[in-house]
Every structure is written in structure tokens, then in C-alpha cells.
Design a protein that fits this description.
about 350 residues; alpha/beta; TIM Barrel; Elongation Factor Tu (Ef-tu), domain 3; 8-stranded parallel beta sheet; 18 strands; about 30% helix; Ala_racemase_N; pyridoxal phosphate binding; pyridoxal phosphate
């Protein structure tokens, strides 16, 4: 059976690296848990590190956080849908918003639930995902800051999430200026400029972060230790908090090319035939994991000489060449994961989750 390991010591090392870095820069932060897909075992590991603020894009995952640790501040990190506002207000202490009507509905629901709900207004800074256009921000704030049971605690932005626009000092300075303009015009304090996600960390480490930016929302760099500017592991962090293990369920020497009339497979592709390979063979291993669990392009082989040939719904096919490592049925093959691969694995009910 395939399984996923989370290494507690490596997660703790990454957490402490980030905690110390943020403290040195006078920045508050919360951990984005959406990668964990509500897995209670892994969420407990996060909370045991001392995490006091958890962000997620699924209300059910925030409900799990509140069940485990009611005192942890929960943050819903995508614009809420109208039909989910009641449960969102119940389980999220904070939400990220960019629609006037949505904030009005949240206000009405917060009154019903006798709760004060905190809001970060998201501002468009170029990546063209969620966010109020800067020219409209002052009017937007004027329409929401006095709504009952609503507390506007920050301005935020997302970069690199859709079109790959990278954060820059200039873009973040602009967001800080919006905060200053609103505070002066309305004589109201906005505590946070929440401009930091994992992609913004390199600016902070290079001392290029504007002083007004004082809140980060961190997922990928915590779990993968990655500098998203240079796409490499940050010195002092660990890149393999997660490892996937899949078992060999068949090992046979087989021809390199299929035989028979070719048509599209269930994924809609037709095998590409290299006639120079006729008559040649290699050892093929079938693993107990497939497309239902993860797209092979997000798997990173850890060691051993093999090629991922493809996958069906429940099986992954490897070419081991002459099998010089003498792999056998029952042996485990280890993979590291790209972010989207880990997300798929953690969302799969068929992969066992472990902590080491």
C-alpha cells in the first residue's frame, strides 16, 4: 500500500526558521493549512509547533482546526460564496474579501451569530486574481468599515497565484500607501498589511520588504523550504518534509513497444512508436498508485535509475532498464513531491498518512 510520510523534525526546523525570520523583521504570520486537506493527524502536528493562526480555503478544514484547538485564530482565504457565509462566520474568525455585497452578508450573519468577524480587504496588484482595484479602494472601504459586527483588520494581496506576477518592493510599497491614505482619510487604524505569501519571503530575506508589510500567510515554504524566486531550497530549511512511498506490485521484463492495433487510451493519448526499439526489452515495475491519486509529472524520484513511463487510474508504470538495483515485488520506491503533487496525495483517501 502506498503511504505518505511527514517528518516531524523537518517540519519543526522549517517552522522555527520562519518564526525566527519573521520575529527579526517584526512581522506577524499565520500558517496556510490547505495543503493538508483537513487531515487531523497533520493539523495536530502544526498546532503542536505553537501555531496560533491557521489559514485555509475550505470551511470544513477550519472546522477541524476549531475542533482540535478552539483558541487558534482561523482565516478563510478565498472570497466566500453566499451560500457558505453562515458556516464561514461560524468557523472562521477572519476572512479575505473583495466584494461589497459579500461583506454586507457577512455583517448580517455575524449579527445573527452575535460574533465580531474580522476582514482583510484584498487589493488587486497585477496578478488579476481576487482583489479590489486600487482606484476603487477608498470608496470600497467607505462602504464597509462601519458595518455592524465587522472589523477591518488589514489590506492584503495575492501575487504569482494566477498569471505568475512576482512580488516587488514597488508593488508592496503601493499597498502600504493605500493603508496610509485610508487611515488618514477615515481616522481609522488598519493593523495589517498582509502582502506576504511564500513567494514574498525572498524579498524579506534580502531586506527588500517595505517596513509597512507586517503580516504573512505561509504554506509552501513551510512544507518545502523553497525560495520561489530561485526555485531552490533556502539555506537552513528542509525541502523534504513529505516523502511518498509506493510499493512494486509487478516486476517483469517486457518489450519496450506495445504490439497490436493502437487507439487512444483512457487519458486520450496514443502511444508514440519509435521503430528503432522493436525487439528490445527492459524491466518494468508497476506501483500501487495512479492518476486517481497524483499526476506523475508532480513526482520527483529520490534515487535509483528509472523513468516514469505513464499511469492508469490506479497504477504507475516505471522503466527500470536492466534493473541494476535488483528491485523486486514488495519493494518500496520513494518520491519527493512538487506542491501540486503533495496536494493531490493529501486529498486522496487511498494513500495512508503517517508521521515520523
Amino acid at each position: 500500500m502506498a503511504f505518505l510520510n511527514l517528518y516531524r523534525d523537518k517540519l519543526e526546523k522549517n517552522f522555527n526558521f520562519l518564526k525566527n525570520s519573521f520575529q527579526a523583521n517584526d512581522v506577524e504570520w499565520g500558517v496556510v493549512s490547505k495543503l493538508l486537506c483537513g487531515n487531523k493527524l497533520y493539523i495536530k502536528e502544526l498546532i503542536s509547533l505553537g501555531v496560533r493562526e491557521i489559514h485555509d480555503s475550505r470551511i470544513s478544514n477550519l472546522a477541524t482546526v476549531k475542533e482540535i484547538a478552539p483558541s487558534v485564530q482561523t482565516v478563510y482565504i478565498k472570497p466566500p460564496s453566499k451560500r457558505n457565509i453562515s458556516s464561514m462566520v461560524k468557523y472562521a474568525d477572519v476572512s479575505l474579501n473583495s466584494e461589497l455585497n459579500t461583506i454586507r452578508w457577512i455583517s448580517e450573519e455575524a449579527v445573527k451569530q452575535n460574533k465580531k468577524h474580522k476582514i482583510i480587504i484584498m487589493v488587486e496588484t497585477g496578478d488579476l486574481r481576487e482583489g479590489v482595484m486600487g482606484d476603487h479602494l477608498v470608496d470600497f472601504y467607505a462602504n464597509v468599515f462601519e458595518l455592524p459586527n465587522i472589523d477591518i483588520i488589514g489590506l492584503g494581496t495575492n501575487l504569482n497565484c494566477l498569471n505568475g506576477v512576482m512580488p516587488s518592493t514597488d508593488k508592496l510599497i503601493q499597498l502600504c500607501l493605500y493603508k496610509q491614505i485610508i487611515e488618514l482619510k477615515f481616522n481609522k487604524r488598519i493593523p495589517w498589511v498582509s502582502a506576504g505569501t511564500s513567494v514574498t519571503i525572498p524579498l524579506m530575506l534580502r531586506s527588500q520588504l517595505p517596513k509597512g508589510v507586517n503580516h504573512f500567510r505561509i504554506g509552501e515554504t513551510l512544507y518545502f523550504g523553497v525560495d520561489l524566486f530561485e526555485e531552490k531550497v533556502i539555506d537552513g530549511m528542509e525541502g523534504d518534509v513529505f516523502e511518498l512511498f509506493a510499493e512494486i506490485i509487478e516486476m517483469q521484463e517486457k518489450p519496450l513497444l506495445p504490439t497490436g492495433i493502437l487507439a487512444a487510451n483512457p487519458q486520450g493519448t496514443i502511444a508514440d512508436i519509435d521503430e528503432s526499439l522493436y525487439g528490445k526489452s527492459s524491466y518494468r515495475a508497476i506501483l500501487d498508485i495512479g492518476l486517481l491519486d497524483v499526476d506523475p509529472k508532480y513526482l520527483i524520484p529520490v534515487k535509483g535509475e528509472f523513468e516514469i513511463l505513464g499511469a492508469s487510474s490506479d497504477m504507475l508504470i516505471l522503466d527500470l532498464g536492466d534493473n541494476k538495483d535488483q528491485k523486486q515485488v514488495g519493494d518500496l520506491i520513494k518520491f519527493h513531491l512538487k506542491y501540486m503533487g503533495a496536494l493531490a496525495i493529501l486529498n486522496s483517501n487511498y494513500i495512508e498518512k503517517k508521521v515520523q
